[in-house]
Amino acid sequence: MSRKVIIAGNWKMNKTVEESVALAQGVVAEVGSVQDVTVVVCPPYTSLYAVSQVLKGSNVKLGAQDVYFEASGAYTGKVSISMLKSCGVEFVILGHSEQRQFFGETDETVNKKTNVVLAAGLTPIVCVGELLEERESGVTEKVCETQIRGAYAGISAADAVKTVIAYEPVWAIGTGKVASPEQAEDVHAFIRKLLADMYDAPTAEMIQIQYGGSMKPDNAKELLGKPNVDGGLIGGASLVAEQFKGIVIPA
Ligand code: PGA
């Protein structure tokens, strides 16, 4: 069974509309016709529509960095799934560690958002991962298990296969301290076994698991070479089109 590799660029709180259009144009020029890898860019909300126009006619897909779980109404500052869909969004990052750390994201809100994204026919990218102190105290698997069981509570196998998981050790995000390919593979294999326990082996085999945390052109090939590493969620290196290309098409 072979899972398609998925590389997603998480631009975080970077790029004005003009800068986003320029970066998206660069990404399309570098990797716009790649077919064997699913390529996604996740600009800030304010750039989604403009970037969607740049991506038209290319193979690059549009993602958002979050969504609110209510459909509409008095939720100042929030953005709904139908708003994202109307911008051409196909993927939504959920439960990113920065959302958990700074904006009160919990396993419960990730679960609500996962349901909303699936109901709209879009693909959730569910982020999980341990803090440095959690790795050091040997609870990495426990932390990931709690986050995944929480995010997938009540979600059927038929829906689970429509999701992507991103394993992002928090100590590796934006720090330049990448997990070794072995460290990544260990956790990815654990997550796949967990999914087999929660659902069944065929379901677990179908779910793509990305690695995220200081993935760069010079370490992507080794990480992506591991059997359970099916892609990458890329922060810093997604902000420069040539670097992003170096991960989508590792030399
Ligand atoms: P990084 O970010 O590649 O800059 O470490 C990854 C992420 O937060 O998704």
Low-confidence segments, given as residue ranges, are none
Strand-residue proportion? 15-25%
Q: Give the tally of β-strands.
A: 8
Top-tier CATH class: Alpha Beta
CATH H-level homologous superfamily name: Aldolase class I
Question: Strand order within the widest sheet?
Answer: 1-2-3-4-5-6-7-8
Main sheet properties: 8 strands, parallel, barrel
The global form is: globular
The helix fraction, in percent, is 40-55%
Q: Can you list the ligands bound to this structure?
A: 2-phosphoglycolic acid
Structural class from helices and strands? alpha/beta
CATH architecture: Alpha-Beta Barrel
Could you walk me through the main structural features you see in this protein, from its secondary elements to its overall organization?
There is one protein chain. Helices cover 43% and strands 16% of the residues. The longest helix has 18 residues, at 181-198. It has one domain: TIM Barrel, CATH 3.20.20.70. With 251 residues, it is an alpha/beta fold. α2 (48-55) links the parallel β2 (37-42) and β3 (61-64). The mean pLDDT is 97. The chain binds 2-phosphoglycolic acid (PGA). Residues 10, 168, 173-174, 212-215, 233-237 line the site of 2-phosphoglycolic acid.
